[in-house]
Amino acid sequence: MAIHWSEAKDQLRQLAAHPQFGLFSDLDGTLAALAPTAEQVRLSPRVLQLLTGLRDELPVVALISGRRVAALHDKVRIPGLVYVGNHGLETLSEDGAAEANPAAAPYRPALDAARKALQAVEGGGAHTEDKGLTLTLHYRQVADPEDFNRRHGDTVRAIAAEQGLEFFTGKMVYELRPPVQMHKGVALRELAGRYGIQAALFLGDDVTDIDGLRAVREMRAAGECDAWGVAVQSPDAPEGLEETADWLASGVADVEDLLAWLLAARRASST
Questions:
Q1: Which architecture does CATH list for 3-101+182-269?
Q2: Cβ(29)–Cβ(206) under 8 Å?
Q3: Per-residue DSSP letters for 180-209?
Q4: Which of 30, 71, 153, 235 counts the most CB atoms within 10 A of its CB?
Q5: 10, 26, 112, 211: which is the annotated catalytic residue?
Q6: Which tens digits make up the pLDDT trace of 160-197?
């Protein structure tokens, strides 16, 4: 059973002191509170300062998000971080250009067809965001999100199946993605290998973050990396999130406290 991160400070201190320790995190609902629209999400000055400090201390600080990678970068704008968007389907190269997984490209016509079909359930606050490689239908702003989900969830799932796309749910969103073997867990493992990470911490709050939480457990069990996961609690946390995590953080403000503690522990270990 997962415990609050403050009860695991001895293990966290060992992680923070490891020369090849990497930090991997979701953005929305983890580092920044959710908002009615993605554009309204804001990172606090404290979080931005802490991420900058951790960037200067660690081999890698990576943000792995469902956002388009360009939108992810524009929201944070800290040089030197690794930005991974669309759940791992695209990354931001060192020259600032977005690099897409080539396996996803053939599914653009299917996404276009699905985008057109989704118009049947849009309106009243529900809208589809085209992320280039994926589609996200947001319904947080409808009058009754639970009723919307009951009435339209199966319809959206059927649209995805008809176009050969994979269907996912999240916090008041549906996602349609190409059937490419890529998710946050795969992205995390690839990044850990690329940067030679031997100790890692992953933070997340939603359905897609469960893949990251599973990955760190698998990496640890296989002896690949001393990797651990933190689930960020919220009233609408998905089923299975806390059960898959090693440790818990009680909301975004608590994540800030965790980052501050990690940064202090890292600096103390190097003096």
A1: 3-Layer(aba) Sandwich (3.40)
A2: yes
A3: -S--HHHHHHHHHHHTT-SEEEEEE-STTH
A4: 30
A5: 26
A6: 999 999 999 999 999 999 999 999 999 999 999 999 99
